[in-house]
Amino acid sequence: MSETVVIGGGVAGLASAILAADQGHQVTLLEKNPQVGGRAGLHEEAGFAFDTGPSWYLMPQVFERFFASVGEDIAAHLDLVTLDPGYRVSDRGLLDSAPQFTVDVPHGYAGVRALFEQLEPGVGPALDAYVESARDTHDLALEHFLYTRFSSLREFTSPQVARRAHRLPRFLLSPLNTMVSRTVAHPLLRQILGYPAVFLGTEPRRAPSLFHLMSYLDLVDGVRYPRGGMYAIVRALTRLARARGVDIRTSTQVISLQLEGRTIAEVVARTVPDPTSGGSELEIFPAENVIAACDLHHLDTALLPPGRRTRSVRGWGKRDPGIGAVTLLLGVDRKLDALEHHNLFFTRDWDANFDQIFVDGQLPEPASAYVCAPSRTDDTVAPLGCENLFVLIPAPASAHLTGARLGDYASRVIDSLGERVGVPDLESHLLVKKVTGPGDFTTQFNAWRGTALGPANTLFQSAMFRYPVRAPHVDNLVHAGAFAAPGVGLPMCLISAHNAVEAL
Fold first, then answer.
1. Is the pTM of this model over 0.90?
2. Where is the Amine oxidase domain (predicted)?
3. CATH code, 80-107+321-453
4. Are 1 and 25 in contact (CB under 8 A)?
5. What's the CA gap between 149 and 424, in Å, rounded?
6. pLDDT digit string (tens) for 448-474?
């Protein structure tokens, strides 16, 4: 029985541990924090249960495929609700006092098409073509480019890929915003088609138009929600791991990898059995295989010696860490009927907003924002009569921006949100207020430059250009998670786990 050590207890780490154990490996999972989940974390306070990271349940077929691959029925583990409307959109960002115009994006393409026609008469046929292309590209990616390690040219020579080859240069070399602007003219509709780029850690001018496939997910496939919150996914994965004998060690931080030539022989970790005691001890874990489901910049620069790194420090300096995030967990003592489950506030001048973040490295003002209010759907995540809010402001990826330094900015965001929801004194109604910044991601997750999602899915950081599944200079090391192919997001992390374990 192979001894396999998984570094990192996020979704990719848990999924990798499950798949490896299911194949007969003896698996130990090491997680530096007191709880598993990684960025898909949970914060409980004053009767509220906050998801601290991912909050959109998309690509359900990926989740279903993962559970089925280990003989499990996803319905036995997750109670999924379809959201209708899928989300609400405003044409004004926060920290902007101008009047706002809002629309609800309904569940089901017929309603979506009617909404687009209402805002831009005659646009229906162009939207049909866009969405059909998105569907076709989504299916092609799912069948040929996601569950792959890009280790052979055969992956690019199937008849299905060959038939679409003439479109690939345009999809790869033309940015998403160009494709969107050729489809619709209404500013808010352009934003509805373009905002998924932020889910990829970038923005519409930097994301290849290949990623227009994301619009198929929310406009056609729909948005779902697991009752109990997104952490229900982590709980389910934890149950599956333990049922297969995975030894999950929390509060256990890997501090070095002991190599013999090109092979990791041992993983050395510092454990904290009782976090309140302040004591710690070293523990050594023999390893025949290592799955790194952690921040891979940290792996390269802190755990591997220079000759065994996939990328040098200089090489990392040429990469794009993607977007950072300012997040606020707000427990409100009243219901906020002006909000839906998912709410997107877009600034009118989107390009200027993104330039503040990606070019100037500044906190944006006005700011596009995402507000998740899961208590609009799920009464288990907040006390009776209260609202659970997760607020996310896209921000520069900067390890210096911590929640402790963001007090004034956060208060102004809260005041602005209060004006939007009809509660001008919103801050006085908060039972819980927790602010984090990119720097807190660095502290908690060893996140490279505080990246919120992982390296941006730009052209030269996607697919075969992303971090390889198999380490080139260490024979028994494979990579999983948001840094590795296929990219960021919970579905991609599940797929990366499949690819990593297949490479063992």
1. yes
2. 11-503
3. 3.90.660
4. yes
5. 52
6. 999 999 888 887 777 667 888 999 999
